[in-house]
Amino acid sequence: MRPLKLVAVSAGLSRPSSTRLLADRLAEAARRRLAEERAVEVSVVELRDLATDIANNLVTGFPAAALREAIERVTEADGVIAVTPIFTASYSGLFKSFFDVIDNTALVAKPVLIAATGGTARHSLALEHALRPMFVYLRALVVPTAVYAASEDWGTGGNSHDDGLAARIARAAGELADLMARRPAVTDTVVPFEQQLAALRP
């Protein structure tokens, strides 16, 4: 049985980026949960590095090699973590453009964890009014817990009224891992063409 493939998509624009940091923490938490039962391959797609290719693809309809490879990784993944900074109360244009160039059937029934970063907690509802509807439209299986990290969340442990960022990461990653683990297993077995033809004969 092949390893599960987990891909984190980060739309952070700066280096270092809190968006990438959140993507990494979510991916590592999900990997640890899944590794108890299955081998896991984790990779990250940095949209910052693909910005020009994404813009060109929107105009020409043809992806460059690097963008094509990133699209294939997301399309073939068993689970996706999608993280964007929040600009003007919604996802970034780069984030939306990347998912615009992916075939709109590529995420059907695929487990997706949505997350976002921002300067203030006031933008946390963007996860529910912008990101979740987009992935529901694409017919992905969006995990119940969405993770938002405001500037003040980094380094806090939470209190009786707030789970804290670490707890939210653990809960969301666990939900994603559970969905990925329940997906039908895909093996790399190839059925010879002659055998396929024989199965069609009456």
TrEMBL record:
Q: Where are the transmembrane segments?
A: none
In the record, what terms sit under GO molecular function?
Answer: oxidoreductase activity
User: What are the residue boundaries of the NADPH-dependent FMN reductase-like domain, all occurrences included?
Assistant: 5-154
Which stretches are annotated as coiled coil?
Answer: none
Q: Name one Pfam family in it.
A: FMN_red
The record's SUPFAM superfamilies line, in alphabetical order, gives: Flavoproteins
Alphabetized, the UniProt keywords read: Flavoprotein, FMN, Oxidoreductase
Instruction: Supply the name of the protein.
Output: FMN reductase
